[in-house]
Amino acid sequence: MATTTTPKKTTTRRPAASKPKTEPAPEPEEVLEAELVDEPGVDSADEMTASERAEAIAAQQELYEELLGDMPPLRAPERFRFSHRTAFTKLMTGAISSGVFEGDGRLEFDLEDPADARRYEAFLDFVSSIDEWAESIAEDPESYAEWSVGKTADHFMTLFTHYRDALGESRRSES
Question: 2-31 as b/e, with b when 16 or more CB fall inside 10 Å?
Fold first, then answer.
């Protein structure tokens, strides 16, 4: 099971590292909390120093390699058609409108609280939609489907963050 729950919050287990590292990778929640959800009207990138930004990028890249290093190739963001970009935008807006990131934006859920339980259900739908979207951009959808069996929410949230950042970069370079 990818996500385990306790009466107060959910926690996720990371897969065992495939090779020894000098420093452990940051927990997915640490990277996602810092990178995934920004407060409206606040550009968190402007608040970070250059060294903090470099450290966050390095941590995110390490997490990507750890969780997604064996993933079959997906279409590169610069090769996206309009429909790919639109589908990705719908992922983001769907998550926002469903309330997944309400409150402080943390991906912790008190399943005894009905509002949090509904938010958790919306989160699971969001993560499932990331998986479906990724399969739609896979160079070999069958290989991707095989790879995705048994993966956790951490895998798909890391994939989402990677593409969100990459698409943001390509949009900035188009301007």
Answer: ebeeeeeebebeeeeeeeeeeeebbebbeb
